[in-house]
Request: fold
Amino acid sequence: MWVPQSGHPLRRMFTGMTEHTFMTTLGVTDTELIDYLAELLSRFVHIDDIYRLRDAGGRPLLEVVDMIQEAQRVPKEGRTAREFHRHVGDFTLFWTGVFPEMLDRRRSTAHKDTFIDYCAQGKRSYFLASTYENTALRDESRVLRRLSEDFELCAYGLTQVRHEWEHGAR
Reply:
């Protein structure tokens, strides 16, 4: 997984836009949450990271329904289950916030995800990922819990970040 380092121009752009949108426009001052969202945008620049979860046969999981089913197959107490839940939260937040028009397109064709609510599933997945609170994961677990509680606000904020980068591109 390639993530632009903090000094990389793309990462700086996402960080600046996310900070501006959340702090100035939305009044959200939780820097850990804002950093998480900027890092999410940076990670999901590459489609390989959007679809990084694999089934037992090594095939990429393209739908949330399949990701959830696969998460139920891995040990509940391991870091792997947490990573699956976290990724489902990230995946649903990304599509809901950054490219919501893609959800409408998916619903108009035959997909398993047609029958799920991305917001509800994202909130549930972030909540489940946040319950893994060993010492090494405690800080991120707090952010994941906040993402679960404020999923809609974060999705709206990411929509505003997209508008900002589109406006800046013009």
Q: What stands out?
A: Residues 47-169 form one domain.
